[in-house]
Amino acid sequence: MTSRKRATPDLKPTGKGRFRHLNLPTIAEKEEQFRLYNNYNWTRSRGEVLAPSGEGQETLDNINADIGEAAFRTQYQQDHGSAGSVMLDFTKIAVLDYEGSGIRRPKTVQVWDTAVKDGPNCDFLAGITFAWDYEKWVVFDVITRRMNFGGLKTFARSTADKWKPVLVLVEDSANGSAFVHDMR
After folding, report:
1. Among 16, 77, 102, 148, which is disulfide-ready with 25 (CB 3.0 to 4.6 Å)?
2. Which helix (H) or strand (E) holds 182?
3. Do 176 and 115 belong to one domain?
């Protein structure tokens, strides 16, 4: 990483409580400059790894080989639209600010990405409830929280009671596998 003083897009808020979207692919695809604080600028060179001490180029190459180009571009490069990695057609997704009582939801689905612990430095669990209404996917609920395993089970049961999903998908991880086993 280098810092240079040059005019670049500012990463300061664009309005009250609003920030610009910052896209930082794990491996820089082009040279980019980011204006930081006190007129400092950060320049990423094409091919530069974002956090080489955590996941260096060799590790990223291995991950790419293991999961495939499409998944790598989506998960590591923040690019869901290229290399065949279109996982969702975002024109067919609606997000509601209300309970969605007027929406037909014959196929409600819940997806859980579980976390291992609930401490302040631990990952968040994530849950999404959505349904297909014959025209589009409708997102009814998005949950991101830190909670322990018992809290996860209680919370998942309450959201399942509320939304009545026909399908529940859980990440295949240590906690996810235990979660599936306990919820059966």
Report:
1. 77
2. helix 174-183
3. yes
Rounded Cα gap, residues 88 and 136, in angstroms: 11
For residue range 164-183, list pLDDT tens digits in order.
888 888 877 767 778 777 87
C-alpha dihedral (170, 176, 181, 184), degrees to nearest 10: -30
Run of H or E including 167: strand 167-170
Is the domain of 131 the same as that of 60? no
138: left (phi over 0), alpha (psi -120 to 50) or beta: beta
Alpha-carbon gap, residue 27 to 51, rounded angstroms: 9
Query: For the whole model, what pTM was predicted?
Result: 0.49
C-alpha span between 153 and 155 (Å, rounded): 5
